[in-house]
Design a protein that fits this description.
Layout lengths: L3 H6 L43 H12 L2 H4 L1 H8 L1 H33 L6 H10 L9 H38 L7 H7 L1 H8 L4 H27 L17 H12 L2 H9 L13 H24 L16 H33 L8 H22 L3 H28 L10 H32 L1
Helix pairs in contact: 2-10, 2-12, 2-13, 4-5, 4-11, 4-13, 5-6, 5-11, 5-13, 5-16, 6-7, 6-16, 7-8, 7-14, 7-15, 7-16, 9-14, 9-15, 10-14, 11-16, 11-17, 16-17
């Protein structure tokens, strides 16, 4: 609790409404102090509903191994075999680095603010509130910006998941009902009951079984997909080594969408029993990103070599639907993505639920939140019905949201956090983060433009 004196002293500070769950020590706002190192945020965390390292690894893997990995052959098609393969590895390293600096900055800011843990938005707010005086008035604005972007990002991702599941089921169903064509929008509507149930899960701990099953299903489905890819590989001379320049924005946007899982990072790290295992070498983050980037590069490169110019937006759509094993792969991966919907939707629902919870009386809080979560499910369904085409949808979400949240904001947060005395020799961190932010803006502008042009073409 703050004393009356400290309340007066901090009146008008951008940190006065920092978070309903974050407690800030008196005098925490300001420049770095050596005494900050004496506070260990990990010792003050609630371990009651914490996850093990394996549970955290499962969540991170599942947040990255979604529809994105199946879109990688199409991404490589838009980048070219050599450019796309090398670009995937480089973007993977950049994304892993951005997650690292975000979590590292959060740990530093937790010590500086004397609070056990922070969300992504609270980390951005704390960075500005404790940074140079000129940026402190923007602290609350940054928190709102990150929260809004997170909600929009993962709602967009959830919409992509819905479209993917419906597309996969439709393809198999139509094989068994020749001559019958049902609009994909009806398949999307049929998913509503399952989506509502998954959206009602309110603790990451209870999503672990779904993540585990999803990981098993997607591994089996990917194994089958890779079998079909490797059994009939075409010569690499049949594909482009470097694609046309106008296709490169789609490549960047799709890869960023595929690899990024930035919104799940802070909830997972905050829920770990041993959060110091998240960073370092080896660590939960490094193991996860190594697995993810390796799988993405393999699936993307060889999937493109196998199907060439005929590569679909999602590679499982290229599998021969008349083969029972291929049908099993399509349905297993569709189930995996369906089970991931709860994890994908966890971040925006938590953010928005925390905002609306105080508006309900204690008596109707549970019912109010349940109704709100059902409403949000219907919102994703409506958006999916409006844009039931995967390729431009995936690239648009990746370009607009994941590039901004996954690369730009972590670079800004680290720069502000280190501004006083930790920018390094010749201010190398500042230069590095300027380059990261510039790349992010390039992907955002070019990727969103090309994606919107494709969407307009589809509906024109």
């Amino acid at each position: 609790m703050w004393t009356k004196k400290s309340e007066n002293e901090t009146h008008g500070s951008p940190m006065k409404e920092f978070s309903s769950t974050t407690k800030i020590a008196p005098g925490a706002i300001g420049e770095y102090n050596e005494k900050d190192e004496l506070y260990d945020p990990f010792e003050h965390r609630d371990k009651k509903n914490s996850n093990s390292d394996i549970g955290a690894l499962a969540h991170l893997l599942k947040s990255s191994l979604g529809t994105g990995i199946l879109a990688m052959p199409n991404a490589i098609k838009n980048g070219g075999l050599i450019f796309g393969g090398l670009g995937t590895i480089i973007i993977g390293i950049l994304c892993a680095h951005c997650v690292h600096i975000l979590v590292k900055s959060s740990h530093v800011l937790c010590r500086r603010m004397k609070t056990p843990k922070m969300t992504y938005a609270e980390t951005a707010q704390a960075a500005f509130a404790s940074g140079p005086r000129s940026v402190r008035p923007f602290a609350n604005f940054m928190k709102g910006t990150v929260d809004t972007a997170l909600c929009a990002t993962y709602i967009g991702g959830a919409c992509v998941y819905v479209v993917f599941v419906a597309t996969s089921v439709k393809q198999v169903a139509e094989f068994y009902t020749p001559g019958t064509t049902i609009d994909i929008r009806l398949y999307i509507v049929a998913l509503v009951p399952a989506l509502i149930l998954l959206a009602q899960v309110r603790n990451l701990k209870y999503l672990v079984p779904f993540s585990f099953l999803a990981n098993v299903f997607i591994v089996v489905g990917l194994a089958i997909t890779l079998y079909y890819i490797f059994t009939d590989l075409k010569p690499i001379s049949t594909v482009k080594y470097v694609s046309n320049v106008e296709n490169l924005p789609i490549f960047f946007a799709t890869v960023i969408f595929a690899i990024e899982g930035i919104g799940v990072v802070m909830p997972v790290e905050n829920s770990m029993k041993k959060p110091h295992h998240f960073l370092g070498c080896p660590s939960v983050l490094n193991i996860t990103m190594t697995i993810v980037v390796t799988l993405y590069a393999i699936v993307g490169i060889f999937g493109y070599v196998r199907y060439g110019a005929a590569t679909e937006s999602i590679v499982t759509l290229n599998l021969d639907v008349s083969l029972p094993v291929a049908q099993a792969a399509k349905l297993l991966i569709a189930l995996a993505i369906l089970f991931t919907y709860g994890l994908q939707f966890f971040v925006p629902l938590e953010i928005m639920s925390n905002a609306i919870r105080p508006r309900f009386s204690h008596k109707f809080a549970g019912i109010g939140e349940t109704i709100f979560r059902v409403f949000m499910v219907f919102l994703t369904v409506i958006i999916a019905i409006a844009i039931p085409n995967l390729e431009p949808f995936i690239s648009l979400v990746g370009a607009v949201f994941f590039s901004f949240l996954g690369i730009c904001i972590p670079a800004v947060v680290e720069t502000i956090s280190c501004w006083e005395c930790h920018l390094g020799t010749a201010k190398w961190r500042l230069i590095k983060n300027i380059l990261l932010a510039s790349f992010s803006m390039f992907a955002l502008v070019t990727g969103s433009y090309v994606s919107l042009v494709e969407i307009i073409k589809i509906y024109s």
